[in-house]
Design brief:
heterodimer, A: mainly alpha, disordered C terminus, B: mainly alpha, about 75% helix, globular
């Protein structure tokens, strides 16, 4: 009872208006000053005017550059202007976030003052900022790296897809222009591009599913086999099976490329020559594709095998004993006990395997650079999307098309990501995390 | 009697399959090893069982004035050490924040890390190449270091966060009661407990510059700045069959230490990945 009257008295003695402090905060810092948080207010003021003063010119040029991509050839470099524009957009987003924070902060402090809370001392205020902001400070360096190494390049790439940047239009000698959806229209309408895209896309999908599924199937088969209680030397067998994963893959792919070489590779010379066979492993698209899938199985099964082995060892014996009592066959035990356990525990990582092979540049490029060449097509016979993008970028300097195809790739990866999300969410709900 | 015969037959079948897989795994590896001991330099003249065993390619790599192998080794070591130290520090901070604090944006932060993990740095290669050009970090080892750190961040952060989640919160909460600050909890309580996963992150980041050839190929131009993988690739890219034995020797020298370290560490990686993926 007593406290209530106290509160009322304090409120009456404090005709402080939180709303007024918000309105004053239209210029950050003033509201805080009104709330008698002098140091905070001063800091906000300095920060606001400092940021505006220092960055105004940079951002002004940035936004101008983002819209026009420069007006004077040889003087304006469209690429730098584009980068400056993107950085300006991100800075603006950051500033808006700060501005909103400033308004909310002014309101909260005003409310507290009105309720009669005492204004915290400088030490308390500092402590509070430190405590509340701590996780943000910890994430900040990583966020900074991510923004510049991952997010900025991705945004830049998206922008390039809507420009006319190619071999015949290279900055700084020429200016870039926004061309809208022209590149995508060309990709789907022009015969050469359309055929290339269709062929590459279909092979990429076949490659992703065939190689990954086969590598998972082989891994599953071997993991179940080795897990058989009668098998001895399990540790040794597992160590040897993991070996292909342990050796750097660029080394093994180059070695396979040499071994499968049509003319002087070991496979044709040492293994098949005695049988009187000669297979065009690299120069025939069909055989090149088969070879790539086989090599990827060799390279990729050990990781999945190691994963599966770990899960298999953790499945309780009781399940199998119960199945034995019910007279379950070996296949039904595998189908109804082993398989669900293993797949459930490893699904997110298996999806990652599919995504990894979808983007598996190394094997395609190192084996025979996406070859053999195909007539009337801008991509080689075994090129997947990512290796095609690489060639367009570094061999043909056709940046606009490379960027447009990268966007298509990004959309497909987003599908994988969606599956991944639903998976991890189901896990979360299961465990009530 | 009949059952044990069937039993034995099955077991023999299993061992036969295992032996077959052994052979398939071993063949390319042993082939490379023996190629590296062939005296000639071309692939065509070398055979899987050399007439004369010779170490001259190994000697060539280290002592010939025209060989940049040691220089490449030095570059790779530099890139690898900086990447590894910087990654561990940054990633430990992120893992700590995501694992131990509730804050606005945490959930979306974790989601975006999960998402970015699927978009390889490579997908933005057009942009990375042009961007590095704009800021003048093309053909520089530092440009390479920055991309390695940023690109590995999402996955590494997940590894560390997953591991920290398994350390009971009671520990740091009781320390907080006793008045320990954020950094004190982090450095004196969690870091010592998280040492295994931090060591794994450090090692994997240390090893990846030894294994990656694509990013160096995009970023580096000057042969004096090459890393090992890129240098070796150029051995055989220039004159394919003529330098293959030297490539084999150089590759063996990278592959053996990496494979050994890897075999020791893989179980940490597997459990780390499994934790990170399922607990999100």
């Amino acid at each position: 009872m007593k406290t209530e009257t106290d509160d009322r008295r304090v409120a009456a003695a404090n005709p402080h208006q939180p709303i007024l402090s918000v309105i004053l905060s239209v210029i950050p810092g003033l509201g805080q000053l009104y709330n008698r948080r002098y140091i905070k207010g001063a800091l906000f003021l300095v920060f606001f005017f400092g940021a505006v003063g220092l960055l105004y010119e940079f951002m002004d040029i940035g936004f101008w550059g983002l819209f026009t991509l420069g007006t004077l050839p040889m003087v304006d470099d469209s690429r730098s202007l584009l980068v400056q524009g993107l950085i300006s957009v991100m800075l603006l987003a950051f500033m808006i976030a700060f501005y909103i924070f400033n308004l909310i902060d002014a309101y909260r402090d005003g409310e507290k003052l009105k309720m009669g809370f005492r204004i915290p001392s400088m030490k308390q205020a500092f402590q509070e900022t430190w405590d509340r902001g701590f996780p943000y400070y910890m994430v900040l360096p990583a966020l900074f790296m991510l923004v510049f190494v991952v997010i900025l390049p991705l945004l830049f790439m998206i922008c390039l897809a809507f420009t006319n940047y190619n071999l015949y239009n290279l900055p700084p000698a020429k200016l870039l222009d926004w061309v809208g959806l022209d590149n995508f229209v060309a990709l789907f309408k022009q015969e050469v591009w359309r055929r290339s895209l269709l062929n590459v896309l279909s092979w990429t999908i076949v490659w992703t599913f065939a190689a990954t599924t086969l590598q998972i199937a082989v891994a599953m088969f071997l993991a179940v086999l080795v897990n058989d209680p009668r098998v001895k030397f399990k540790r040794t067998i597992r160590t040897v099976f993991i070996l292909p994963w342990a050796v750097p893959s660029f080394v093994t792919i180059l070695i396979f490329a040499a071994m499968f070489n049509d003319d002087f590779g070991a496979i044709n010379r040492e293994l098949l020559a005695p049988l009187g066979m000669h297979v065009p492993w690299m120069s025939d698209p069909f055989w090149a594709k088969i070879t790539l899938i086989l090599i990827q199985v060799w390279l990729g099964f050990p990781f999945v095998f190691a994963l599966f082995s770990g899960v298999l060892q953790s499945i309780s014996r009781d399940w199998y004993e119960a199945a034995d009592v019910d007279g379950g066959s070996r296949w039904s035990k595998f189908r109804h006990i082993t398989l669900p356990h293993v797949l459930y525990a490893t699904a997110p990582l298996l999806i990652m395997q599919y995504a990894g092979n979808f983007n598996n540049f190394n094997i395609i490029y190192l084996f025979n650079e996406g070859g053999p060449p195909v007539r009337n097509q801008s991509a080689g016979g075994t090129d997947i999307l990512i290796s095609w993008v690489y060639k367009l970028t570094f061999d043909n300097n056709n940046y606009k098309m490379a960027a447009a195809i990268s966007i298509i790739m990004g959309l497909i990866v987003a599908v994988f990501a969606f599956f991944q999300f639903t998976r991890s969410r189901s896990f979360r709900e299961e465990k009530l995390y | 009697m009949k059952k044990s015969a069937k039993n034995r037959l099955e077991l023999t079948g299993i061992y036969l399959i295992v032996l077959f897989v052994f052979a398939v795994i071993a063949y390319p590896l042993l082939w490379t090893l023996s190629i590296s001991f062939n005296p000639g330099t071309s692939l065509f003249s070398s055979s899987i069982i050399p007439d004369v065993w010779s170490l001259k390619h190994y000697q060539w790599l280290f002592s010939d004035p025209s060989s940049d192998y040691l220089l490449w080794y030095k570059n790779t070591l530099l890139v690898a050490s900086v990447t590894s130290v910087a990654s561990v520090i940054i990633v430990a901070f992120v893992g700590f924040a995501f694992s131990r604090y509730e804050f606005v944006g945490r959930k979306y932060g974790i989601y975006s890390f999960l998402l970015l993990q699927m978009f390889p740095v490579l997908m933005g290669m057009v942009a990375i190449y042009l961007l590095l050009n704009v800021v003048g970090l093309l053909d520089s080892l530092w440009g390479l270091v920055i991309i390695y750190i940023g690109g590995g961040l999402p996955m590494n952060a997940f590894l560390v966060k997953g591991y920290l989640d398994t350390i009971p919160r009671d520990l740091d909460e009781s320390a907080k009661m006793d008045g320990a600050g954020h950094f004190r909890i982090f450095f004196q309580i969690l870091t010592p407990l998280a040492k295994p996963i931090l060591a794994v992150v450090a090692l994997f980041n240390f090893m990846s510059p030894f294994m990656d050839f694509l990013l160096p190929r995009i970023v580096l131009r000057d042969p004096e700045k090459f890393t090992l993988a890129l240098g070796l690739y150029n051995f055989i890219n220039d004159q394919f069959s003529n330098n293959f034995t030297r490539f084999a020797a150089g590759a063996i020298l990278i592959a053996v230490p990496i494979a050994v370290v890897f075999l020791f560490l893989q179980r940490y990686l597997i459990s780390g990945l499994a934790e990170g993926a399922t607990k999100g």
